[in-house]
Amino acid sequence: MALAKHYQQEILKQKEILGCFVSMEQMNDLWGLSPEVISELNTHFKVVIPSSFKKIAINDASLKELSQFSYFKYALAKQIVTYRSMNGNINNIEDLSKIKGFPVEKAKIISLYLEF
After folding, report:
1. 15-53: per-residue pLDDT in tens?
2. Domain extent listing, the chain
3. CB–CB of 115/60 below 8 Å?
4. Where are the alpha helices (DSSP H) in the chain?
């Protein structure tokens, strides 16, 4: 499969931002990839999480660390820290989903980057 150079650059740029992909579903978030291209990618590639991949410890990470995670904006990271201080540990993705501004539609993927 010949993947247009533009698509390759977009995929590599997003990989750089995230550190690594954890799911082929993340291809849906890339701008400009048509459903046909995504289907082709799913046919020919799979995500392999590197052994060096380190999850974010959601209950120990600082505001700065949380805000650097590409799925969290600063305001959400601040909400997470506030939630932890008021409610104790976050035990699962459902707890995170209760926080205002949390991207619930991406919860499944986000949970793969987190350690509870």
Report:
1. 999 999 999 999 998 888 889 989 989 999 999 999 999
2. 5-44, 56-115
3. no
4. 5-18, 35-44, 63-68, 74-87, 93-97, 107-112
Q: Is the dihedral of CA 81, 86, 91, 96 positive or negative?
A: negative
* Surface-to-core class of residue 66, CB atoms within 10 Å of its CB (0-12 exposed, 13-18 middle, 19+ buried): buried
Its CATH architecture, for the domain 56-115, is Orthogonal Bundle (1.10)
Instruction: Check: pTM over 0.90? Answer yes or no.
Output: no
Q: What single letter denotes the amino acid at residue 7?
A: Y
What are the tokens at 27? 């291809």
The 3-class secondary structure across 67-99, one letter per residue, is HHCCCCCHHHHHHHHHHHHHHCCCCCHHHHHCC
